[in-house]
Description:
Rossmann fold, alpha/beta, 8 helices
Amino acid sequence: MGRENTIAIIGGTGAQGLGLASRLCAAGRRVVIGSRVPERAVRAAEDVRGRVPGAVVEGLGNAEAAAAAALVILSVPFEHTADTLKGLRQRLAPGQIVISMGVPIASAIGDGPSRLLGVWQGSCAELVADLVPAGVEVVSALQNVSARRLSALEEPIECDVVVCGAKAARARVMEMCELVPGLRAVHGGPLANSRIVESMTALLIGLSARYKVASGVGMRFTGLPE
């Protein structure tokens, strides 16, 4: 499989990234897991192969992982977003799509996770768009799916994800999302709408805490055509 059929997950050694890597491998996609410490990425890839027999997965350093894939998913905490992208800039090229999963929740500065920080650009996704090289598209997606839901491979996720970005790039990311059983991609319009979607993450975190939902509260939109 070449670069066009490969998905890189930067920060794929964390719970959310590892769950997503496992889900995509289970759907038959080639995945490259990236980490600041390549040895951690190699161990994460071994973990995925243990969970998904026959998985086509590799662990590399962040920059090498980003260069190896057409779709590059940023699965890092908000506070590491800018530094991570600075390390990737030289390896990103026109035609690639970077998928922002980040949310500027206030736990980044020691406050509660159900509150948001203000971002000058408007959202984490728009910050990412400011930092990638020209010709690299940025799409916002997957913020609202919990790590526990992603990791429970034996269960369909049963969540909607709102995908925001330019039309062609958005369509490719929506197709990727729907590789995961039970995950429905919803056309969220332009990247600026990521501001709304990211704020919904803080709401869902608060709901999960108040209703004691260990797997994380998800969301479904009603009335959409099938």
